Amino acid sequence: MAQQVSAFDAQFLNFETATNLAHIAALTILDPSGRPGGALTREDLIALLKRRLHLAPPLRRRLVEVPFGLDHPYWAEDREVDFDYHVRELALPPPGDDHKLAVQVARLHGARLDRGRPLWEMYLIHGLAGGRVGIYTKVHHAAVDGVTGAEVLAAVMDFEPEPAAAPAPEAAAEPQPAPDAVEMVIRGVARVLDNPFALLRFVAEAVPRLDEVPFVAQLPGVGLVSRFVRGIGGRDAEPLPELPRMVVPRTPFSGPISRHRRFAFGQLPLDEVKRIKNAFGVTVNDVVMAMCATAMRRWLAKRDELPRQPLVAGIPVSTRGQAANGSAANEVMLTMTSLPTDVADPRDRLLSVNRSMGLLKERLAAAPAAWLLEFSQAMPAALSALAARSAFRIASRTGSAMNLMISNVPGPQTPLYVGGARVTALYPMSVITDVSGGINITVFSYDGRLDFGIVTDRDMVPDVWDLIDYLRDSLAEYGALAGRARPRTRRARRPEEPGRENFPQTR
Predict the structure, then answer these.
(1) Do residues 23 and 418 lie in contact, with contact meaning Cβ atoms separated by under 8 Å?
(2) What angle in degrees, to the nearest 10, is found between the helix axes of 346-366 and 464-484?
(3) Of 23, 72, 140, 141, which residue is the catalytic one?
(4) What's the confidence (pLDDT) of residue 382?
(5) Which residue of 78, 87, 383, 426 is 20 to 30 Å from 414, comparing CA positions?
(6) Between the CA of residue 26 and those of 17, 55, 119, 134, what are the distances in Å?
């Protein structure tokens, strides 16, 4: 039987509008000089996808809606995929520099996926300077999270120039159809009837943790209620570290976004980031967050828009391994942290990031975030969809839940190849929304480098490439400070503190 879209993943479908888009993507840069003829064609790419389609199930899944919206949709697996539709190609006008490439990719990123087909598209882009080619791939966030999205890309990649033989699909693996309409209605009604009991089971766990939920945590009194309920939860309950109530300051990239995007990308050496983190006794992710804080501080100060309060950044947190239910659902949740753009001294800024991230990790270690996956299950599907859309409209009018989003996804540190063409860079692209702000900075570590992809609203941040320059300047600044810093002993990790498997941003 086909799997049902989880209540959490359904929210990515529910909040999507003409401007709030819910797909994630990657721009892969390839050097095809090692291939026969020194070129990679669309036909080569399609042939590779056909051989390995069974290794990337999300590429075969299509949404099937439940009649009357009684329940969340199902994923049905298509036996055949229309590659002529999903795999496309285009060419940049000469000279095919990075800025022209970013403009074209931003246009592609601002277009919605067709929900009547499997929720992905791939574009082979010719005409890049130096004989390179690009592959822009986007997949709906309801189908993958950041980690599984990387796994989808890995299905078409190899660790050697010579493509490896793909393992044969299991003989018994047949496409899974969705239930028929009658069965879907019966299941939907059963869930509605069971819902009051699900709600009662959930409230006991949800209320003590409301101060972790973006937007909800900003409401007056929420922190007090959560602390009070935790206080009466019983003497045996381990106290949770208190999270500070964060005030989201107004910025030029706050408020409703448009349907148009801008994109910029760049690479920085991972070894230099590691040298800095060793000098200050922090993590790679702390250094990345401090660099982002520095870049945002400089961008805002240049426009005389720097708030006195720190920015609030949304941080995706992996819950992979906590649910352990074998579902196809996303295993990532969103939490928040202060981004110390208000701190003038760069060293103090880095140490402030380290303290904030440490507090967040302690909170997640004491009470993992997997409970948030159950949040949407407590509501009937139809009401959940209405609530998601209403919450977005209200939040966009009354104030954002955060200023921007920052994500750091670990990747392989050895070269990858697509059909014999070497991958020289893999720039991630993610989501901006009315409530999360008009900037998203996503980082993917690959082959000794950090690949930065920055997506912004076209009107809010017209000079997105400045942020890439500021990130480079920040790395140089921290590199100079590291040369003068006395080694700082890093706090030992407690046995229960999450590592990379629970918090993928931490290294």
Answers:
(1) no
(2) 100
(3) 141
(4) 58
(5) 87
(6) 21, 18, 15, 10
Provide φ and ψ at 458, rounded to 5°. Answer: -60, -40
- Other C-beta atoms closer than 10 Å to the C-beta of 348 total 12
Which of 40, 44, 383, 23 is closest to 199 using CA atoms? 383
Question: Which residue shows structure tokens 């399609």?
Answer: 46
Give the other-Cβ count within 10 Å of 404's Cβ: 25
* DSSP three-state, residue 209: helix
Specify the amino acid at residue 148. T
Q: In this structure, what token pair is assigned to residue 404? A: 């921007």
pLDDT one-digit tens code per residue, 471-499: 999 999 999 999 887 666 555 444 333 33
Q: Which pair of tokens denotes residue 178?
A: 């969705």
Per-chain mean pLDDT for the chain: 82
- Single-letter residue type at 67: P
Helix axes 284-302, 270-280, angle to 10 degrees: 100
Residue 252, Ramachandran bin (φ over 0: left; ψ between -120 and 50: alpha; else beta): alpha
pLDDT at residue 502 above 50? no
- For 133, the token pair is 């080619």
The pLDDT of residue 320: 55
DSSP label of 120: E
pLDDT for 373: 55
pLDDT at 343: 97
pLDDT score of 247 more than 80: yes
Residue 8 carries which side chain, given as an amino acid letter? F
Q: Quick one: which H or E segment has residue 278?
A: helix 270-280
Task: Say if residue 377's pLDDT is above 60.
Answer: no
- What is the pLDDT, as a whole number, of residue 260? 96
pTM of the model: 0.85
Asked about 260 being catalytic, the answer comes back as no
Written as six digits, the tokens of 217 are 């945590």
Share of the chain above pLDDT 90, in %: 52
* Cβ–Cβ under 8 Å, residues 294 and 477: yes
Q: Of 207, 202, 198, 199, which is closest to residue 230 (Cα–Cα)?
A: 207
H or E segment to which residue 459 belongs: none
- How far apart CA 42 and CA 472 sit, in angstroms, is 35
**379-399 per-position pLDDT tens digit:** 556 556 666 666 666 666 666
pLDDT score recorded for residue 506: 38
The structure tokens 């810093």 sit at 485
Pairwise CA distance, residues 90 & 321, whole Å = 40
For residues 185 and 70, give the distance between their C-alpha atoms in angstroms, rounded to a whole number: 7
Any idea what DSSP says for residue 472?
H
Both tokens assigned to 148: 């599984």
Task: Give, in order, the Cα–Cα distances in Å from 145 to each of 102, 141, 428.
Answer: 23, 6, 12
Query: The tokens of 458 are what?
Result: 């076209």
Average pLDDT over residues 98-104: 97
The H or E element that residue 455 is part of is strand 449-457
